[in-house]
Amino acid sequence: MESAQLFDAGEKGRGLRATREINAGEVIFSEPSFSAVVFDSLFSQVCHSCFRQQAQLHRCAQCKFAHYCNRTCQTACWDEHKQECGAIKKAGTAPSENIRLAARVLWRIHKVSGLASDSQLVSVDQLEDHVADLSKEDLDEVNTDVQTFLKYWSHGRKQHSAEYIAHLFGIIKCNGFTLSDQRGLQAVGVGLFPNLCLVNHDCWPNCTVILNHGSQTAVSSALHSQRRIELRALRRISEFEELTVSYVDYLNVSADRQRKLKEHFHFDCTCEHCRQRANDDLMTAGADSKPSAEKLKEVAALSREYLENIETARVNGDYHEVLRLCLECLQQQEDVLADTHLLKLRVLSVTSEVLSFLKSFSEAAAYAHRMVEGYKKLYHPNNAQLGMAIMRAGITHWHAGQIEAGHAMICKAYGILMVTHGPSHAITRDLESMRTQTEMELKMFRDNKHEYNAMRDAALKNPTKSVCIDFTPAASQVTRVVCIAFS
């Protein structure tokens, strides 16, 4: 690993720092997973090798559990799957994702003694487990998993103590990273990346992490590339500066972020943004009308109730009810909560999404614009989630016929995602195609508005040419969130 080195980060323990000056968008290092598994709920919808979502996957004929894009993906994954395949066959059914990941980790440890390559800085066994810091509820959950694991592992060759297996589960609980699908829109699995585990947290980090799904399309297998994470610089990083990522979404007030970090990762965050309570005032701001503290508290409580009901309606697929609740909630929030208030941003986001789903693009664009303007005041300018939000808003404006605003947003999103995802990622390639298309349409619009509008009306009448933003609920399973794409 040429651009990063292990160092003593003081109270934070170990950390990684830059060995040279690094520019925004550079890949500092990439790392294949030590082990990774697809979530239980998506086992038949996601390839167990490249973690892409596909409509028609091929099932493993032996265990009838693992699914793959094709024979190429299955062959690439066989070394990781073969012992699991035999264990599932003997057990009669596949265990939960936690058990499967722990087993894959242990099989890999047996094979490589915990070090998968010369570039791996620490063995898996040396990662923090924080078992001693777990709550009684979490510890009971780990102990239950240990007993289930030992029954599953009884089909293996070597036995291990319950204490050692608990150590492995602790490592996975603290260090497992969620993996997204190829479009970065849904969390589809969890994996262990030992070098990435050494990167410490900061609420306003200088790096981000994305999943590169690799490529198995070349005729020669020698030209295939592995599934791997990439640590990318969000800004210029000085030589010997510590490398950091965010373990939690920034859109929480500092006290809530600190609470989540303490509960899940067992440390007290003392980053600059938490110490200064940066942006907390914007995230809880009242409208320009300066409502009273009592009114702010009342509307905030009401908004939380609305959001619970909105989520219930969304899960049930009742999108007209989602829209009704959103509009009612926004009416209550008007002149009370600012557009940077976290609760208002959540409602603006859902309102824009559901209106896009219902193909009311002009209305959706207005709410998307307000949401993006709020996000821009809060997020780091190169935040991947900001880039994705601007992209979705740009698409909404595009389909609303607001080609100038849509093209500008798509270009802005492209600039952000070139930093966070790089030029070869599927999302960036999609954005490049959209940018080219909207640029052509913008030229047509400026040359002849009447002809452009006629073309657009004809396209909207043809369902095959209408693009709708996905509004189906995404997977919510998350272990350690490090903005691996957008989930």
Automatic annotation (TrEMBL):
SMART domains: SET. InterPro entries: H3K4_H4K5_MeTrfase, SET_dom, SET_dom_sf, TPR-like_helical_dom_sf, Znf_MYND. GO terms for molecular function: histone H3K4 trimethyltransferase activity; zinc ion binding. It holds the Pfam family zf-MYND. It catalyses: L-lysyl(4)-[histone H3] + 3 S-adenosyl-L-methionine = N(6),N(6),N(6)-trimethyl-L-lysyl(4)-[histone H3] + 3 S-adenosyl-L-homocysteine + 3 H(+). Keywords: Metal-binding, Methyltransferase, S-adenosyl-L-methionine, Transferase, Zinc, Zinc-finger. GO terms for cellular component: nucleus. Residues 1-248 form the SET domain. Its EC number is 2.1.1.354. Residues 47-85 form the MYND-type domain. GO terms for biological process: methylation. PANTHER family: HISTONE-LYSINE N-METHYLTRANSFERASE SMYD, HISTONE-LYSINE N-METHYLTRANSFERASE SMYD1. This is [histone H3]-lysine(4) N-trimethyltransferase. It comes from Salarias fasciatus. The gene is smyd1a.
